[in-house]
Amino acid sequence: MKKLKRSARLVEMTQYLLARPHTLISLTAFAERYQSAKSSISEDLAIIKEVFEEQGVGELHTLAGAAGGVRFTPKCRKDQALEQINAICRQLEEPDRLLPGGYLYMTDLIGEPGLMQEVGRMFASAFSDSRIDVIVTVETKGIPLAYATAQFLNLPVVVVRRDHKVTEGSAVSINYVSGSSKRIQTMSLARRALKEESRVLIIDDFMKAGGTIQGMVDLLREFRAEVAGVGVLVESGEVEYEERLLHDYVSLARLTEVDLRTRRITVQPGNYFQS
Q1: Residue 180 banded pLDDT, cuts 50, 70, 90
Q2: What integer pLDDT is reported at residue 227 of this predicted model?
Q3: Which of 105, 148, 194, 198 stands the most exposed, by the fewest C-beta atoms within 10 Å?
Q4: Where is each Phosphoribosyltransferase domain found (predicted)?
């Protein structure tokens, strides 16, 4: 790369860091990339760090020593996240979203890349201090959420299938009981998809009683994986605590009321905003 003016270098360094979250980058690598002294690079990083923290973009951590450098950790300020979630809640309260069984139509929201990017940043911020090796979701609507979160955590994504695909080779399959319908269903995961003893973050779009997520937890035990966290975009608040199969999770929104007769829907911010 040709030598840049400082203003251009600041812009390029910012983009470089944003594209490489949770990656340790040495001062030497920056100095060689921009053909600048380490002292100048350090001053630039101090400016970027200040702006990131003031704007709620994330944190820039400096690691001292010969093997040190800087690492960018994406963050989302609670006030900024709450504003975005309140807007999502208002959209979810639209009466024509109501589906049989008290479910909400969410596919259009999940299909918006910009919106999912913000949701992914919220999940990444919520679990930024957890040691995670991989993000796991179940097909299909959880996939955009999982990839958006993975972008900010710089992690791979593993998708649990409803049916085994012959193109994925041998797989582990289990039966599980859906928490809402009480029906026995099947899910599978290719043996090559997940290393044993991985620490896993489960991401899903909607949780009623938690049967699907509990099924994923049981499936992951076959790989001796440890569930380090569970994140759901919307949880149902109409399920009694005793009926819920899962209690340790982070939700961004909570469906608190569904009146099928009047088609009234009430959605509030989830437990992430209560801590």
Answers
A1: low
A2: 97
A3: 105
A4: 113-243
